[in-house]
Write the structure tokens for this entry.
Amino acid sequence: MGISSVLALIRKEASLEWRQKTAFGGVMLYLVSTVFVCYLSFSGIIPDRTWNALFWIIMLFASFNAILKGFIQEGSGRLVWYYTLVPAQVLLNAKIIYNALVMVVLSLLGWLVFVVFMGDPIQNHSLFFTGMLLGISGLSAVLTMVSAIAGKARNNFTLMGVLSFPLVLPQILVLIRVSGAAIQGEALLSHWQGLLVLLLLTGLGIVLANLLFPYIWRE
Amino acid sequence: MIENFKASWWKFLGILMLLYVVAGGLLFEVPQLPVIRESIRNVYFHVGMWFSMMFITFAALVFSIRYLRYQRAEDDLRAVAAVKTGLVFGTLGLLTGMVWAKFTWGQFWVNDPKLNGAVVGMLIYLAYMVLRGSVEELEKRARLAAVYNVFAFVLFFVFIMILPRMAEASIHPGTDGNPALASGDLAPMMRKVFFPAMAAWFILAWWVFSLYYRLDRLRHQIAELTENY
């Protein structure tokens, strides 16, 4: 088991994704359309603070879409089969890492779409992307765990939003604060507390998810 | 009659204490502070609501952990009952707080980390109820709900530690991180009502919790009986 099976599972996720490009394409289209609607409704003029808040809210919803399908797409039969192959935590960690990768790709593409339509107010890109990376890993841990819960219930999408909003709020608030500092052009380490909090939340999310996932998983 | 009294003496104690709290809270002397004035009496009620909510949601956490360990349906029913009680006390805490805010800060709601933390807590427990409503199977519902409760409680606790430290200032009294544990600056003359008040609200919370639990257990038994027909 261990790292090799995690890597194998990540590779499996990626090739599944590649075979069904429409799913990821759908999320991308969702992202572009939302940004475009914002661009039209704000008539292109948008203050930095609004840019910041809009960016993360849109990213959050796009991530809900992208992550939720992870557990629903796989029928319960296939999940049982994985159960016989690997320990629950291996599957969970593979999903968390894979979802984080998907969110990084989404956020980078989202950032490009934002730059095209609404300009790029960010002055310190290294701080912005460091914050993004740390924030996304924490969000991925929480959202993967919630999607595993929501995937077993009805009204998945509504439930996904309702269950995860209060839980991702700390990350989103810290992220918005850090990327706000990046927009203002502050130095990379001037906001080390924010980055540290993001790191701690990521660690906490991963530990909790690993402790609790075996209970959801059992059918 | 005597038998009943032996089993439920604590309820009578709670009623007596609440009567004392309501009378003493409205009549006894309180410090005259600017702006707050007589509204300071709300300390006995508003703070009691949030203390009781924390107490009973902590109980819900314990029941959820116990459910995950031993898989007994009773523990799940206790956890729901505790969450429902927590929602009742949380709602009352919000309402008493809003009335107080209107008379001291001029608005029903202000953008303050402690108030926002309270809303997030309420949202988590409402989400917990929505989750339960979305799963048909009893055992699966209990399991998913217990997992969510533990996951959410820990993250929420970290959240209310972080949030106040991120904000520049807070208008709400209380030390960093914990809005309700501010009794260090409670005037001595208020203590003779404040401490009994907290105990009385805890007793009431436990009473409401036990009523919810008994009701839910009966519903559960009815469901099990009718299932076999």
